[in-house]
Design goal:
Radius of gyration: 18 Å
Bound molecules: ligand MTE
Number of strands: 12
CATH architecture: Alpha-Beta Complex
Distance between the termini: 43 Å
Structural class: alpha+beta
CATH class: Alpha Beta
Largest sheet: 7 strands, mixed
Helix content: 10-25%
């Protein structure tokens, strides 16, 4: 049975960490679970200073309410339609302005990574939000390993193209591959991680298995899933939503309660899982990560250059 589907069904009632951690051993066997085991072995025990102490959303929320257009545009499409996706074996091509370009296998990337849990707020441009306990490592570590050349100013990312496994790619909903990008200083910020797991397990297919970007101060669409290519460039790369509608989706797309989307307010957000009567939460500048990232934008008018 497909792993993505099984997670949604079997784990829905095991939100408390102690329960699913003890269950984890029962689940070892599937390939991706072996990766999770490796991740577990290397994870540092101390909670990250970058983690929020807000309670994380349930695994059920995080794995059944998704945006992953490669599997369809409905919120339940990724969990329903990603069962045939094969996140192993996997390699990421790293090219462009780097000293050591090449194809890096996921095992190799993980063997050299300092994995840790990062509990981050996650704010979608559609004005919903969650708190997600990612497992990942700082993107800067991988970039330093491959040697960024001085002329590099931006980092571009691409998602895998496999229409036979990703039914959404059989339609022209977006221009595939899904593409995203960051300025180099944003990519090197310690908050920017490549996640390979969540809730201490390998990343489910619907969340971007086996490796995805997480940039917590930006709208969720910047956090590109199932990455197969990372390119260092001297120019700003084209990005999927910006190409589709530049007025609605800027390249930077920092969470900003003062800059409304042309079709809705960004001043507040709905925390997924809060129930029908839950009050909306005020959206915070940079999604609450201003202490870490505001200095990246000194002198930049974020109301115009969004
Ligand atoms: N990455 C790819 N390849 N395709 C997508 O459709 N959706 C983005 C982002 N990364 C998307 C993607 C959007 S709009 C959001 S809000 C987040 O993934 C959702 O991540 P989640 O489903 O893990 O919450």
């Amino acid at each position: 049975m497909a792993i993505g589907r099984r997670i949604g069904l079997d784990w829905s009632d095991v939100t408390p960490k102690s329960v699913w951690m003890s269950r984890r051993s029962l689940l070892v066997g599937a390939g991706s679970m072996m990766l999770a085991g490796a991740a577990q072995a290397k994870m540092s025990g101390a909670p990250s200073a970058f983690s929020t102490d807000e309670p994380p959303n349930s695994l059920e929320d995080i794995t059944t309410y998704n945006n992953f257009y490669e599997f369809g545009s409905g919120k339940e499409d990724p969990s329903n339609n990603s069962g045939n996706f094969k996140p192993q074996p996997w390699a990421v091509q790293i090219d462009g302005l780097v000293d050591k370009p090449g194809s890096y296998g996921l095992e190799d990337i993980l063997a050299n990574a300092a994995l840790e849990e990062r509990i981050y707020r996650f704010r979608c441009v559609e004005a919903w939000s969650m708190v997600v306990p990612w497992v990942g490592f700082e993107l800067s570590a991988l970039l330093n390993r491959v040697g960024v050349q001085p002329s590099a100013k931006f980092v571009a990312f691409e998602t895998v193209v496999r229409p036979e496994e990703m039914p959404g790619q059989q339609q022209g909903i977006l221009d595939w591959p899904y593409r995203e990008g960051l300025r180099l200083d944003e990519a090197m910020n310690p908050l920017t991680i490549l996640a390979t797991g969540l809730y201490d397990e390998a990343l489910p297919n619907q969340n971007g298995a086996p490796i995805r970007l997480v940039v917590p101060w930006k709208y969720g669409f910047k956090s590109i899933k199932s990455i197969v290519r990372i390119s260092l460039m001297d120019k700003m790369p084209p990005t999927t939503w910006n190409m589709l509608n530049a007025r609605e989706y800027g390249f930077y797309s920092n969470v900003n309660p003062k800059v409304d989307h042309p079709r809705w307010s960004q001043a507040s957000e709905r925390r997924v899982g809060g129930g029908f009567f839950a009050k909306r939460v005020d959206t915070q500048m940079f999604n609450g990560y201003g202490d870490e990232v505001a200095s990246l934008y000194t002198g930049q008018d974020l109301t115009k250059d969004y």
